[in-house]
Amino acid sequence: xxxxxxxxxxxxxxxxxxxxxxxxxxxxxxxxxxxxxxxxxxxxxxxxxxxxxxxxxxxxxxxxxxxxxxxxxxxxxxxxxxxxxxxxxxxxxxxxxxxxxxxxxxxxxxxxxxxxxxxxxxxxxxxxxxxxxxxxxxxxxxxxxxxxxxxxxxxxxxxxxxxxxxxxxxxxxxxxxxxxxxxxxxxxxxxxxxxxxxxxxxxxxxxxxxxxxxxxxxxxxxxxxxxxxxxxxx
Length: 234
Fold this sequence. Notes:
45% helix; Rossmann fold; alpha/beta; 8 strands; 6-stranded parallel sheet; 10 helices
C-alpha cells in the first residue's frame, strides 16, 4: 500500500545558508593550507566569472547550478572514507547546525512523529546530505551522487547533480530502490526556490519556505502554503 512522504530541501529551506559554504570552511581549516589555497583559487577563478553572464541572462540558472555543483567535489578530491566522514560530520554539526530554521525543522519533526517517511533532497554531495540526515534523525537522504575509485573520492559525480528536475528523478528512484510505494499526490515538499519546481510538481502538497520572488509569485498564484517571509522581504 502506498503512503505519503515528506521531502525537504536543505539550503535556504531547513537552513539559512548553503552546505557548500561549510565544505569550503572545513577545507580552509585543514592543516594542508597549500592544497586548500590551490583548490579554492581554481574553484573561485572558474566559477565566479559565471556570475556575470548568469546575471545578464546569458547563462541559464540550471547550467550555472550544474557546473557549480559538479566542481564542489574538488574540495574533497582524494579523501578516503574516514576523511570524508570527518568532513561531513563537521559540516553538519559545526557549520550547518547553527544555521537551522527551527520553524521548518519543527515541520520535519511533525512529519516524523506522524510516521511518514521523511527525506532530505539536496544538491549537496550525498555524504553531506547523509550526515545532516543522521544529525536530524531523518531516515532518507538524497543528494548528488559522488564517485569513489580505489577507496578514494575522485571529486567527480557519477551522474547529474541532484538539482532542478533531477530532484524528482532521484526521489522517485530512491524510494523505488527502497521498495517503498509512495502516494505522491498525498505527499509534501518543502523548498525555497523556483528552481525546485520539479520537486513541487512531484507532490500534491507543495510548501514554499522563505521563498524567492519567483517561487512566492507561483505559490500565491496556485494557492500553495507559504512558510516564512519571502527573500525579498527579509
